[in-house]
Amino acid sequence: MLQRVAVVGAGAAGLCAARHILTRPASFAPPVVFEVSGNVGGTWCYEERIGTYPNGRPVLSSMYRDLTNLPKEVMMFPDFPFDPELSSFLSHQEVQRYLERYCENFRIRPHIRFDTAVENVTPVSTTAENGESKITWEVTSLDSTGHQKTETFDAVFICSHYSDPHIPNIPGIQNFKTVLHSHSYRFAEPFSGQRVVVLGAKASGLDISIELQDGSVCQADVLIFCTGYNFSYPFLDPARLGLEIQNHVVSPLYRYMMPPAFPSLIFIGICKIICPFPNFDCQVQFALAVLDGSVAMPPQEQMEEVVRREHQRKLEAGVQHHHLLKLDQDQWEYCDTLAGSAGFPPLQPAVRSLYEEVWRQRQVHPENYREFNYRLVSATRWE
Fold it and tell me: Which SUPFAM superfamilies is this protein grouped with (predicted)?
């Protein structure tokens, strides 16, 4: 019997999951993709509005007008290149068009339920035909007409993560005229003539500070938090799933994807400091190999021990607890391990080499590193 899979979110990770499910018709029925908005693209679908829509639903996109921080040569899904005529550093509109083209090319759109929110995802223990205990998932959704529906799936991919801004509690915050999170930042013009402090120096912090700051020291009017996002899954019961969901950490997740107690619930794209689309592609292919039986999973206790040892290794190396999901240099070995286990092609060495070169350029030339253009010459070379 074909497995039924639900996918929560039609951003890059959700589209990737749906695409690979559709290429395995011998094992999986066509997916059902739940998307709360009316478009594909997730955070790449730019929305100038902030806060909430007229229907009361929150604006989930965190995209600001001029965001691009990775070249298309390393950003692309491994087997679906961007238009080679485009510059390396793209506008969000071009990335959105790329995802729409990906969606059309792999005929994903007919399987997406737009304007449909997932309200509840619950595990149900059943007995399989061979008499063994089996976990299925009841997924309750609500569409834009107010119609609620509950369906049963064999697996659920969670592909929607970064929309709940993390705002730390800082003494004196009330002294700023304006306080906002980068989630609500769209462009620089509203801050003209004001003195802005940006807290946070990862991707968003660097981008926004370059757009706004002149390096001077002064009393400030505006505080912008570029402090990341909380993991928030109101449709899940973490305790029932054996999960602990804190501000920046979801644990335990075997291979950064699967709760050991419920490995058919799969989180795609939860890792940080990664090359996103290639990482999603590797995770999805590994997860589907687990679901179709190509990759055997260890017992629950062993998976929990693997996660515990990995966290311990990071903590002993000085990684702070709230950074446990950051892969950074570990991402390459991680993706290679997934590829080796599931038998799909690993990421090309040139992708890693170019990714690392761009990060070096970003440290040295934060204001103009995006002026360079690159080209992948072979699996091992770029220019």
Answer: FAD/NAD(P)-binding domain (SSF51905)
